[in-house]
Design a protein that fits this description.
- By secondary structure, the protein is of the alpha+beta class.
- Strands 1-5-4-3-2-8-7-6 form an eight-stranded mixed sheet.
- Helix 3 runs antiparallel to helix 4.
């Protein structure tokens, strides 16, 4: 800590702190594609380095895309971990394939009762929680977890009881929640996110069923070819074949009757 304080006061750092210098390599990496793109514009196609510059630009762009994706994944995992710590009684949230989508503080109707709830939307589930008096780092209490693949969305028309609302109903269980958004824009945005997630589930289910159908067809075809190979249209037994069949018949007779011929 003492070293950092001394370093921060050094005139050579030009007022930049340690964090500003730590992020420099990342910022520099993102500038390389721009540099190579401008260099490519200024390089004639007949120049011997033209193709090398193209290859370098493509490879650097791939590295930058990879770094940015890993950064997004890290930030997402950290967000999941933070929420898990903030919601008292929350089930495990941190998962490699789970993404945080949005958080809303809204009105929810359940069994004709009205509640103010916090809703956390993820790529595979929706968690309903209530705000509680902060205890340590806990400022929410867990209420319900709904798996999105089990839900259907029903857009509700505005009425006397509520407006800007939609319903989340379980496909097989008598469970449903009415979410009353604060505005029409929020409602449309929420429904759009939900439908996008459900569409991904439908695509995954379609391709899973498609693969199963292809495997079943291949198995049927293999069985058909096997039967075709076993189907005999002409038999021309030799004397040795007849002898083998006769010997087999004698053995089977003796085994079944216990008598010898």
């Amino acid at each position: 800590r003492e070293f950092v304080q001394v370093a921060d006061g050094d005139p050579q750092v030009r007022g930049l702190n340690m964090c500003a210098f730590l992020i420099k390599p990342m910022q520099r990496l993102c500038k390389y594609p721009l540099l190579l793109r401008e260099l490519l514009k200024a390089t004639p196609e007949t120049h011997p380095d033209y193709k090398n510059i193209i290859d370098a630009k493509d490879e650097v762009c791939e590295v930058v895309a990879y770094v940015n994706e890993r950064k997004r994944m890290g930030e997402n995992q950290q967000k999941l971990l933070d929420l898990q710590h903030r919601i008292d009684g929350c089930p495990k949230l941190v998962s490699e394939n789970r993404k945080f989508i949005r958080e809303e503080y809204t009105v929810i109707y359940e069994n004709k009762q009205k509640f103010k709830r916090s809703v956390f939307l993820f790529s595979d589930q929706l968690i309903i929680a209530k705000k509680v008096k902060q205890k340590g780092n806990k400022d929410y209490g867990f209420i319900e977890s709904l798996m999105l693949k089990d839900l259907k969305i029903i857009d509700l028309a505005d009425g006397e009881d509520f407006e800007n609302a939609f319903e989340l109903a379980h496909k097989t269980e008598p469970k449903k929640f009415t979410v009353n958004a604060s505005s029409g824009d929020e409602k449309r945005s929420f429904i759009k996110d939900l439908k996008a997630i459900l569409k991904e589930f439908q695509k995954a289910e379609y391709f899973a069923n498609k693969d199963a159908m292809i495997r079943e067809k291949e198995e049927r075809e293999a069985k058909r070819r096997l039967l075709d190979s076993l189907r005999v249209t002409e038999v021309n037994p030799t004397q040795a074949d007849n002898q083998d069949v006769w010997s087999l018949g004698l053995v089977l007779y003796q085994m079944s009757t216990g008598r010898e011929l």
